UniProtKB/TrEMBL annotation:
Belongs to the short-chain dehydrogenases/reductases (SDR) family. Keywords: Oxidoreductase. Residues 10-187 form the Ketoreductase domain. It comes from the Bacteria. GO terms for molecular function: 2-dehydro-3-deoxy-D-gluconate 5-dehydrogenase activity. It holds the Pfam family adh_short_C2. InterPro entries: 2-deoxy-D-gluc_3_DH, KR_dom, NAD(P)-bd_dom_sf, Sc_DH/Rdtase_CS, SDR_fam. Its EC number is 1.1.1.127. This is 2-dehydro-3-deoxy-D-gluconate 5-dehydrogenase KduD. Gene3D superfamilies: NAD(P)-binding Rossmann-like Domain. SUPFAM superfamilies: NAD(P)-binding Rossmann-fold domains.
């Protein structure tokens, strides 16, 4: 018996699939039945091995997504190696921290290019394919800073607000043509990205006390949301940014 969350027969691109949230999303999609193109600059061998151990197909696609140069090749290699494309998860992302008065153009461009520009052009390339086949799911990884200002992360906040806006725009354009574009806004998730915060005893305690659920998120919490948005259970959801944050934004 199949469930609405069944992804057998589907193929997903996941960017930044070697670690953290991207790896958890790739494994969750594979557990639901999807084959995985694990895209990133560090080869996602561990992820691919784990996906194959689940009995799904998986391949590494090497690409530095700090520019849009590899975007079309990522699509072409996915179709060549895995034979289909049904799901795109734009997860790869970086953050740079400095006071806004001191923020450099380099730190602005690096974050905007990776988090926002490449995300858009991957949506465009995958969108062309999905529109032609009349079906597809795109999931962009946003942030709490798609909704809140944050501090000392101007390019990150701009990029993630941009991701949420872009998600709505693409949904407007593509919803009637069978392509769902949505986003997930993770709260505080325990990954390498947040290792310094977790290691700082005071900050760690403050964060946990501020989260209604009383704990950091696990990357698998984001994987579950990705399975939902990638599945037919989400066919009528368009342009939404789903906070998976232990209640942070509810406070
Ligand atoms: P990690 O730093 O653990 O992972 C980031 C991933 O992005 C890595 O796979 C990394 O690859 C990849 N990446 C970065 N730059 C590039 C690039 N130029 N080309 C290809 N891949 C690249 O972070 P998380 O797992 O925590 O974050 C994943 C996403 O979730 C990001 O978009 C982040 O902004 C978002 N997020 C995370 C939150 C958290 O609390 N952890 C909260 C809100 C949003 P490599 O290993 O090669 O650097």
């Amino acid at each position: 018996m199949t469930t609405p969350f069944d992804l057998h027969g589907k193929t997903a691109i996941v960017t930044g699939a070697n670690t953290g949230i991207g790896q958890a999303i790739a494994l969750s999609l594979a557990q639901a039945g999807a084959d995985i193109a694990a895209v990133g600059r560090t080869p996602a061998q561990d992820t691919v091995d784990q996906v194959r151990a689940l009995g799904r197909q998986a391949d590494i696609i090497s690409a530095d997504l700090s520019t849009i140069e590899p975007v079309q090749r990522v699509l072409d290699e996915t179709l060549e190696k895995l034979g289909a494309l049904d799901i795109l998860v734009n997860n790869a992302g970086i953050i740079r921290r400095a006071d806004s008065v001191d923020f450099t153009e380099e730190d602005w461009d690096a974050v905007i290019d990776t988090n926002l520009k490449t995300t858009f052009f991957l949506c465009q390339a995958a969108g062309r394919h999905m529109l032609a086949q009349g079906a597809g799911k795109i999931i962009n990884i946003a942030s709490l800073l798609s909704f809140q200002g944050g501090i000392r992360v101007p390019s990150y906040t701009a990029s993630k607000s941009g991701v949420a806006g872009l998600t709505k725009l693409l949904a407007n354009e593509w919803a009637a043509r069978g392509v769902n574009v949505n986003a997930i806004a993770p709260g505080y998730i325990a990954t390498n990205n947040t290792a310094a915060l977790q290691a700082d005893e005071t900050r760690n305690r403050q964060i946990q006390e501020r989260i209604p659920a009383g704990r950091w998120g696990d990357p698998a919490d984001i994987g579950g949301a990705a399975v939902f948005l990638a599945s037919s259970a989400a066919d009528y959801i368009h342009g939404h940014t789903l906070a998976v944050d232990g209640g942070w934004l509810a406070r």
